[in-house]
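Hi V.,

You were right to ask for the full record rather than a summary. Here it is.
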Amino acid sequence: MAIRALSTLPEPPTRPGNGHLQDWALRPLPLIEEGAARARAAGGDVFRLRLGLPAVVGVGAAWNRAVLTDLGTFRSAGSLSRIVPYLSGGVILSDAPGHAGRRSLMNPGFGRAHLLALQARTRAALPGVPGGAFDALAWADGAVLRLLNAAYFSGEFDEGLLHAFLAPLRRPFPVPAVPRPLLFARVDAEVRLLAHARLRERGHDDLLAVLAPLPGGLDEVRVSLAAAHDTTTHALAYAIWFLARHPQWHAPAHHAAALKEVLRLYPPGWMGSRRLSRDLIWGGVRLPRGALALYSPYLSGRDPAVWDRPAEFDPGRWAGKPPAWAYLPFGGGERLCLGMHLAQLLIHDALAALPPLHAVRGDPTPLPGLTLGPRGPLIVTAAGDARSVAPGPR
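Predicted structure:
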């Protein structure tokens, strides 16, 4: 069987002079949805993007599994997240073979047992629910900032500085990629000051206390904090909105299924990237060394070949197990998201604290940037106050 060139892969329509760059910047979700449709129509599971360097996007479980488990071939170094100073290639900065050892050092602090020990502190940090109608997106933003401050720093980090540090992540590109050396220097100085107390005194058990003794641990504090905020904020905001629209699911016994369904439809990490460390033959096509290898939890979670009624919000589908390698809001394999348990704990506690809600008006249209979040606002109110607020478009 002859090996075909990358140029033979299906691809979305291009624009003269810039390939897919303009659509990648302005309308990436329709772009990748069109690419996925063309790949499936051609009987394959990858398509090509022209982004100024060779790039392929996979749309099937086999591709997802390969990208997330073959760490020698699919490398984080040189991937898209490297262009964002906040992330520097992702939490746990090392690639294989050093990744596994580094991960084993950090896992205990982010494990369920340690996080449960912090739960009283994070629950106490939850803000109250505003009276009357409020924007679930804005409330989630402030709530998650306070929750992460409690989990990482026992609430001791300057809130104004923490807000200033995280605010650029909520803006569209290229804002998150702009270097901010003075701001980062202020944040790093604050982290070092608080870390010194953890290293000098016994009795601290927050996440900073876990990471501070590790070589490079303070860098991981900054990176993991940035990675946690918008992802958790957007997942929480979407969960509040859908529970307000589907109040039959707003009970602690149903929150796990509702959150899984939110993350299937709107995974904050909507696109993941790696770089190929060697030539790879995939489906009879030679993918060249150095090419961007992209996988999309957004596409996988809406694959009509895998999910029944993929565009509908139906937490009832989670009575069974998800299809293997098709549900990836936290990645998978050895690079499963380090903060998965932390995000779930914080979101579940926030949802459990909310009263019955009514959706008033809002725009949940997903806006892809560094993370996938709702356009907003998402106006909700306590169910007992619903009749006093005029409904708007949903």
